[in-house]
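Recap from last week: sequence in, structure out.
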Amino acid sequence: MSDTIEHIGSGSVIQHGKLNDRVYLMKLKKEDLTAVFQRMEELTVEERYTKLFCKVPGSLAPRFLEEGFITEGQIPRFYNGEEDALFFSRFNDPARLANKPEEELARFRQLLSEPLRQNDQSKKWADYSVRQLKKTDAEQIAKIYAQVFESYPFPIHDPAYIAKMMEQDVQYFGAFKGDELAALSSAEIDFDTQSAEMTDFATDSAHTGHSLSCLLLRSMEEAMQLQNIQTLFTIARLASIPMNKTFLRFGYHFSGTFINPRSPAASSA
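Predicted structure tokens:
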């Protein structure tokens, strides 16, 4: 059940699908605001999505508040290192707004209160090397994703889809033990805003316990710096304490918890 991506106007992008039962405004150009609102309302009626979720420039916040949206989080200096990005949501189903994962929130609050130390992981990484992945690696990438992700809004189990994403500013990085791909992650880059989402970390079950997500994140950060990417962020599942701990340990700042049992915590650096 794959999500649909739609391009609107001069560069705005929305994603929508039944897996998360929502419309996600991923990228908004100010000149497309009216057309974007119109399309989101059409999808709400046609598909009966229970949530609209929007990442928008801070300067457009008043319009979203006027339309009944609430603020769920923000990423400071997201747009070219200057303007903040705000996450707004509107819930078309009151039950979805009221359903909060209190147990997961308690564990996450505990994590935020703990001092996190940067441990030396070099011994765990001694047998591994990292490089940016190519289209020739697509089958191995899809194989690991099929093992790790039971469900996903896009067909990441399909090597052809992975190869297509590589042509659309998604850069994949892999940790190898010899010739074997042991773990991978991706950076979804938006060169217009000089930002990148660090996402889709996955480790082959035979290589768990080596902190390979930390190795990959460090390598990706170095690669993004070389490409003049100024803002790095992630949207990590609230229940995934190890992933949240990884980003906090690397200096990412907690930026909000989205209101929904499927929703993650957002971080930025």
